[in-house]
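Appendix C: a fully annotated inverse folding record. The material below is reproduced so that readers can follow the format used throughout the book. The structure is listed first as C-alpha cells, followed by the designed sequence.
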C-alpha cells in the first residue's frame, strides 16, 4: 500500500508539468550526503511517519464473489493508516526552490483526495477514498525541525503532506459450493446380509441447496406450493 501511495503522489505531481520541465520527483531521504550528490532540480517527497488510524478499524469480514456470483473468498476489513511526508524543493538558487515549492503547493491543495484514476494496485481494487491533507495545522507528526535534525541537515522550507490510505485486509479462500447431496446408509442389514444401498438427500428441481441445506427427498416450500397450484388447476 505504501508504494502505491507513493505512485499516486508521483502521478499527481507529474500532471503539474514538473517532470516535463526536467524536474525530478524522488522519494529519497534528503540527507546532507544526498543533497551534495544532487545535480538537477528536484522535488523530494520523503515519508517519515506512519501511524494507524485506530478510530476507523472495522470488524467482521466481507465476501468476495466471482463473475458467476459464487462466493470464492472472505476478506477482513481494511485498516487505515496515516502516511506523513516532508516535501522539499532543491535547486541552485532559493528563488528557484521557492518557485518549485509554490508549483507543488498549488497542485496538492487543489485536491482533498488522490484522484481515483491515479491509484494503482490494491488502492484501485478497494475503490475507497484516499484523503490528502497538505500543510494542515493539525498534522499529528514529528515537527519539521526534529526531522531535519534526525537527517543531519539544516532546516529548509518544506510542506507537510498527510495521506490516509487503507491497507487491504487478509483474504481467505472459501470452500467450493456443494453441488450434490449427502448419501445416508442405514446400519440395518437386509435378509441376504447386504447393507442398505443408501439414499441421497437432496432437494428436487434444485441443483444448489443454498443456506437451508439438504433434506431427505423433500421439496423446497416454493416448489411444493407451485406443485399444489398445478394440481388445483387440473382438478
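Designed amino acids, in order:
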Amino acid at each position: 500500500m505504501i508504494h502505491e501511495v507513493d505512485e499516486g503522489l508521483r502521478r499527481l505531481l507529474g500532471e503539474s508539468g514538473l517532470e516535463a520541465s526536467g524536474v525530478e520527483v524522488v522519494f529519497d531521504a534528503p540527507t546532507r550526503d544526498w543533497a551534495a550528490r544532487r545535480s538537477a532540480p528536484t522535488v523530494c517527497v520523503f515519508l517519515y511517519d506512519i501511524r494507524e488510524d485506530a478510530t476507523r478499524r472495522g470488524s467482521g469480514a466481507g465476501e468476495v464473489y466471482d463473475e458467476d456470483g459464487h462466493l470464492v473468498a472472505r476478506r477482513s476489513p481494511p485498516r487505515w493508516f496515516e502516511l506523513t511526508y516532508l516535501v522539499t524543493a532543491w535547486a541552485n538558487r532559493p528563488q528557484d526552490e521557492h518557485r518549485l515549492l509554490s508549483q507543488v503547493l498549488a497542485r496538492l491543495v487543489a485536491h482533498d483526495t488522490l484522484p481515483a484514476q491515479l491509484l494503482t494496485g490494491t488502492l484501485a481494487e478497494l475503490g475507497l477514498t484516499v484523503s490528502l491533507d497538505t500543510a494542515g495545522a493539525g498534522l499529528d507528526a514529528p515537527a519539521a525541525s526534529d526531522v531535519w535534525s534526525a537527517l543531519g541537515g539544516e532546516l529548509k522550507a518544506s510542506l507537510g503532506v498527510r495521506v490516509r490510505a487503507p491497507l487491504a485486509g487478509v483474504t481467505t479462500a472459501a470452500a467450493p459450493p456443494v453441488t450434490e447431496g449427502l448419501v445416508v446408509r442405514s446400519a440395518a442389514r437386509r435378509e441376504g446380509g447386504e447393507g442398505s444401498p443408501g439414499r441421497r438427500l437432496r432437494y428436487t428441481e434444485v441443483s444448489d441447496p443454498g443456506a437451508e441445506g439438504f433434506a431427505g427427498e423433500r421439496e423446497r416450500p416454493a416448489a411444493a406450493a407451485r406443485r399444489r397450484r398445478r394440481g388445483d388447476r387440473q382438478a
